[in-house]
Amino acid sequence: QPIYLRDYRPPAFLVDHTELEFDLYEEGAQVVSRLKLRRNPDSDNARASLVLDGVELELRSIMIDGVEVDAERYSVEGEHLEVRDVPDEFELETQVWIKPQENTCLEGLYKSSTMFCTQCEAEGFRRITYYIDRPDVMSLFRTTIRADQSLYPVLLSNGNEVEAGVLEDGRHFAVWEDPHRKPCYLFALVAGDLHCQKDVFVTSSGREVELRMYVEHRNANKCDHGLISLKKSMAWDEDVYGREYDLDVFMIVAVDDFNMGAMENKGLNIFNSSCVLAKPETTTDNGYQRIEAIVAHEYFHNWSGNRVTCRDWFQLSLKEGFTVFRDAQFSADMGSDTVKRIEDVTVLRTAQFAEDAGPMSHPVRPASFIEISNFYTLTVYEKGAEVVRMIHTLLGAEKFRQGSDLYFSRFDGQAVTTDDFVACMEEVSGIDLTQFKRWYEQAGTPVIRVTDFYDPDTREYRLTFRQSCPATPQQTEKLPFHIPFAIGLLDASGQDIALPNGATTQVLHLTEPEQSLVFQNIEAQPVPSLLRGFSAPVRLEYNWSLEQLKFLMSHDSDGFNRWDAGQKLAIVVMQNMISDGSRDVPEILIEAYRKVINDTETDQALIAKMLSLPTEQYLIELADEADVQLIHQVREITQEKLGGALREELKACFQRNVQSSEAYAVDALSIAKRTLRNTALQMLLKTGDEEALQWALDQFQAASNMTDQIGALAALVHSPFENDRAQALSSFYDQWQSDNQVVEQWFSLQSGNPKTGHLQAIKALMQHAAFDIRNPNKTRSVIGVFANQNLTCFHAEDGSGYEFLADQVIQLDALNPQIASRLVTPLTRWRKYSEVRQGQMKLALQRIKSGGKLSPDLFEVVSKS
Ligand code: ARG
Ligand code: ZN
């Protein structure tokens, strides 16, 4: 059942040209395909039959060079069409009938509300027509679409529109031609009644590109931010990577039903509505920033992914890791680089580390898989981006840019591997990355244990590093990694000590299981600032004292480590409370927080981050055996005590950051002010403060933007004020029920909180008129948020949370396997919990497994768990 990287063979046939004709109807669609095929000179089988992929296609005719193929010369078996005794070069024409209206897996051609749309990555194109569905088969595409003119006035595909016109019976057509060769996973088609907002971008070489954003008419006023983000991305990729756009038109389409965030189809990006539509009244600051990042990500794929693509799906991180790295650099440049780094590391350390320690743990370049859809993971994306980031650190910005230039020019128009990428980086820098490449091959999160020793007689300071990596599925023994480890040393006054490289930060190359480094002429015991900027995706162990952490929190010149010291301080405090049963929050944490709140000098965006306690998820991830209820309780108490002890400071912070009636702006300072104000409000409300309650109610009523409105609502939801909470929730729904994106936020807020999201309430939300299990966003915002964020309810003692999730997963698998197999993830984390919980979780998994025929997606996850 699994397929292996080591079995890679070049394709037996190539497709030089692909001509597609779509006839779209209300009962289904007819797809005619004409493929110009020839044998691949690089194939190791010169006599191979032609084998095409196809899933749920009704084959109506098949011709070679215009002649019907005899029935005994071809066969359809499972997901393949085999044609025997074919010439070395020929045209194959097939005609199939498909049913987009009945397609609930949202792969291939499907309907989302009233429009037709596609999602082909990774292997969805085979649900549209018979094809050699693999990324190393690249072809020129010409696409004709015919449909009813009044229902589907807009007909789109990749490239340029070269012809359009009217047909009989109220139908019309359009012909699109894409001048760039591409694998079929980048194909896209859209047909619908859509509003189009236009803009223009002039490239650095002076070409005019028409930008178009297509949305359903009700969303016509939510296009501005997407287009602004797109123009910023286009300019940035020219400035920083020298990459210009290469077509005359670039289109974005928003669809409500979408499995993932968005898709980089050539010249025709398709987005989940929630990842591109925005206006201040309905979209939070987080939403604005997320959209900017995703628009950039998809746009950047035009080079890292489309012009240079992947040879096979084991190389997925070639395009995803690199593109996530690029979008992170972009976001850092658009706002606060420290805050962006904090956000990325938070995801990595909570969710990716957990994935890498679980049953689905896999290398950035997996060696095998059953279903590729299961490998669009945090490891491939986020750890993959960290690997590229480490290369950037090892080479420096200038050499890295030379390496990427070489990569893009050498492999333009080709389908290549992560080794090809690394080879370019080695070539321009002269740095040997042989050992470094283990980051692509070995799964698991390396652990680095640091010890230090200061000798006042010799004035030497010695740091010792020991690295190891836990066993993961299929890989018990790990070889040492090449780890770029950035450090600084602080003197007693909090100043950076000059290091041997002449700077205040130095990147060490850890390559051995154990390594030491001695610093000479150090006046007194320094405080080490370790792993600055989180220079490698590792678990760091060092025996910090609380005083050292508090010191770093206010003095470290590395913003990331200032924040991280605060997190570590809070973690140690809470871990102590968990282990010794005490419920007293030590003065040192309160004092440290007091200092943070009163700090109006430091970047206020960083201050806002520093005010948030580590999440329950992260505390669970750090525990050997997590007691969810205890962790929740201790974190709540810590928050309440901080809120109580710092009441005056928090009130001053709230009032300092109340903005007068200025217009809503999404610049860094305005965002920071809103975050601070809302964080303070939430902390105050948790303590039951009546004055803060009034502030929250006023803000909820008066808010002119969603950040403030939902900020107030969230504060109420987390507060002990039951009646106000219920009233606010229901008036919020009345106000926004016609807006899907807001209703999703409304669902999430309730399902993610134990006060509003106990199992009965979740079941009630699923009965709500606005809920639809076929819509991935709604499913994620109710069921997904419940299982991933509302941890005390999900891990309820009686196992009811697990049983509920199993029921939903089973039901969903029949509709949408990709969503089912993602939703089951929390159950696969059973190793983290007590024996009783483990038993209950495994029982739930068992029930899924024995529940009948599973999709390959769900089967792979469940059987590996
Ligand atoms: N390439 C897309 C992106 O990262 C994601 C598409 C994933 N699709 C899927 N079926 N897994 O931008
Ligand atoms: Zn991507």
Instruction: Name the average pLDDT.
Output: 97
The end-to-end span amounts to 17 Å
- Share of residues in helices: 40-55%
Shape annotation: globular
Structural class, from secondary structure content? alpha+beta
Number of helices: 28
Give the arrangement of secondary structure elements:
Layout: E1 3-4, E2 13-24, E3 29-39, E4 50-53, E5 58-64, E6 67-68, E7 74-77, E8 80-83, E9 89-98, E10 108-112, E11 115-119, E12 138-148, E13 154-157, E14 160-166, E15 171-183, E16 189-192, E17 195-202, E18 208-215, H1 224-241, E19 249-255, E20 262-263, E21 268-272, H2 285-300, E22 309-310, H3 316-334, H4 337-356, E23 368-369, H5 378-395, H6 397-411, E24 415-416, H7 418-429, H8 438-441, E25 447-455, E26 460-468, E27 483-490, E28 506-510, E29 514-519, E30 527-530, E31 539-541, H9 546-555, H10 559-580, H11 587-598, H12 604-610, H13 616-622, H14 628-645, H15 647-656, H16 668-686, H17 690-702, H18 706-717, H19 722-736, H20 740-751, H21 759-767, H22 776-789, H23 791-794, H24 800-815, H25 817-823, H26 825-828, H27 835-849, H28 856-864
Parallel strand pairs: 2-12, 18-19, 19-21, 22-24, 25-31
Antiparallel strand pairs: 1-23, 2-3, 3-9, 4-8, 5-6, 5-9, 7-8, 10-11, 12-15, 13-16, 14-15, 17-18, 20-21, 25-26, 26-29, 27-28, 27-30
Helix pairs in contact: 1-2, 2-3, 3-4, 3-5, 4-5, 4-10, 5-6, 6-7, 9-10, 9-11, 10-12, 12-16, 14-16, 15-16, 16-18, 17-18, 19-20, 20-22, 24-25, 24-27, 25-28
Bound molecules: arginine (ARG) and zinc ion.
